Amino acid sequence: MTALLDVCGLRKTYQAADRTVEAVRDLTFGIGDGELACIVGPSGAGKTTLLKCVAGLLAPSGGEVVLEGRPVHGPPENMAVVFQEYGRSLFPWMTVEQNIELPLKQKKVAKRRRGELVAEALESVGLADAGGAYPWQLSGGMQQRVAIARAVAYEPSVLLMDEPFAAVDAQTRAELEDLTRELWQRLGMTVLFVTHDIEEAVYLGQRVLVLSAAPTVIMEDAVIDLPAEREQLATRSDPRFAELRAHIYSLVQQAKTYHDGAEPRS
Ligand SMILES: Nc1ncnc2c1ncn2[C@@H]1O[C@H](COP(=O)(O)OP(=O)(O)OP(=O)(O)O)[C@@H](O)[C@H]1O
Question: Whose CA is nearest to atom 12 of ligand 1?
Fold first, then answer.
């Protein structure tokens, strides 16, 4: 599989007024075209830092991110991001439709096509009738569906998701996980999904990259060899799911105390 996204020797050091924080020490990995990869790691491991560098929202201190052969120096055209805080990522004074349409206007998509993309995206997240509502009239889960619709309407080749379901209830979360896999399979996007939830990573991913505590390196790049068709109850009660969950769990426990000296595994 050709790598669509390459992260090469990525480093990020933050300079605060009174201290220097080495957040990411050395990250190298590739994500293949059409892959769904999850990233897990302990709190403060640098997951958000990594995603911001990949999204071109933060300049790395060293190394580079290459998307479709081109180095990333700012937000790439063919990438969309879904953040955890849907409440802050949707504009409250715009309707759902207007929120979804905004990035399409910036991308200079023609008006008629914008209308089609907005309608298709709303349909695909099960909110075909909510286009005229304002975000604050919707539940948290529905707002996150709108954020997903906005990302999908943009037709990105890469979708980055930063703990997108951390703030919704368990039932909604399961539905949104299935929606993510369904859209990924149907639209053929490449998805990089950051989560602190090990079960979620194993359920969703084809691969799970386990990050160490900061300064961050990759502890393991685990292949999730579960069947492609996943279903909340059946997949989660598969003995292989339990094995993978236990394996990733023990890695994340080690990750909390993992520091330089030892060679990272890949
Ligand atoms: N703007 C900043 N200035 C200084 N230090 C920062 C800044 N942003 C992040 N850090 C530090 O970098 C490290 C990694 O933070 P980051 O938010 O990327 O981790 P994370 O894995 O996403 O954490 P969590 O799982 O808790 O959300 C932490 O030690 C954090 O305190």
Answer: 23
Identify the residues whose C-beta falls under 6 Å from ligand 1: 14, 16, 21, 23, 41, 43-49, 196, 214
Tokens standing for residue 48: 């958000």
From CA 84, how far away is CA 163, in angstroms rounded?
Answer: 5
Cα(128)–Cα(120) distance, rounded to whole angstroms? 8
pLDDT value at position 259? 60
The protein residue with its alpha carbon nearest to ligand 1, atom 28, reads 44
Do β-strands 36-40 and 70-71 pair in parallel, antiparallel, or remain unpaired? unpaired
What is the value of pTM for the model shown? 0.91
Domain residue ranges in the chain: 84-155
Q: Where are the alpha helices (H) located in the chain, listed in sequence order?
A: 47-54, 86-89, 96-106, 111-124, 140-153, 170-187, 198-204, 232-236, 239-255
Q: Note the pLDDT of residue 42.
A: 86
**Which of 11, 25, 49, 50 is the pocket-test mutation for ligand 1 (most atoms within 8 Å of CB)?**
49
Measured from the CA of 211, which atom of ligand 1 is nearest? 21
Chain length of the chain = 266
Say which residue the tokens 């009239």 belong to. 137
Residue 256 is predicted with a pLDDT of 81
**Residue with the nearest Cα to atom 29 of ligand 1?**
44
Q: Which residues of the chain have pLDDT under 70?
A: 1-2, 259-266
Pocket of ligand 1, candidates 19, 20, 21, 216: which has the most ligand atoms within 8 Å of its Cβ, to mutate? 21
CA distances from residue 127 to 89, 108, 138, 148, 185 in whole angstroms, order as listed: 18, 24, 11, 11, 19
